[in-house]
Q: What sequence folds into this?
């Protein structure tokens, strides 16, 4: 996905969101870190709030940068998450089914002439092929 295809939030929403983020960081810093970090985060929140209210257009470069960072993180993190899901869910299931001896695809029947599975034709109705949905 290209940056031109991404719909950016309004600059005001972007500014308000990051003002709130810096305020939360300053509250956390107040209880966990030094007083200097509280002042730094509150200062950043104040500057960002002032820009949001007075000149929201000045936040456009930061808004675009944030969108680019989000796209890059999405390209990096998504394959990692999907790979983890695959190896943590599907691989153990496959190992367990092989240890149990299940052969769902019936690939171990080597002495047969065909892999065709005979079906019971008792419930076959040609009308079922018309208007399937």
A:
């Amino acid at each position: 996905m290209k940056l031109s295809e991404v719909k950016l939030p309004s600059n005001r929403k972007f500014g308000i969101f990051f003002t709130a983020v810096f305020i939360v960081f300053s509250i956390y810093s107040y209880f966990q870190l030094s007083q200097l970090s509280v002042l730094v985060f509150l200062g950043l929140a104040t500057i960002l709030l002032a820009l949001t209210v007075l000149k929201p257009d000045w936040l456009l470069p930061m808004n675009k940068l944030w969108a680019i960072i989000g796209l890059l993180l999405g390209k990096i993190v998504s394959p990692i998450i999907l790979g983890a899901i695959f190896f943590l869910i599907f691989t153990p299931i496959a190992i367990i089914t092989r240890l149990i001896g299940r052969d769902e695809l019936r690939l171990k029947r080597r002495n047969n002439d065909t892999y065709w599975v005979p079906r019971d034709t008792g419930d076959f109705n040609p009308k079922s092929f018309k208007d399937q949905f």
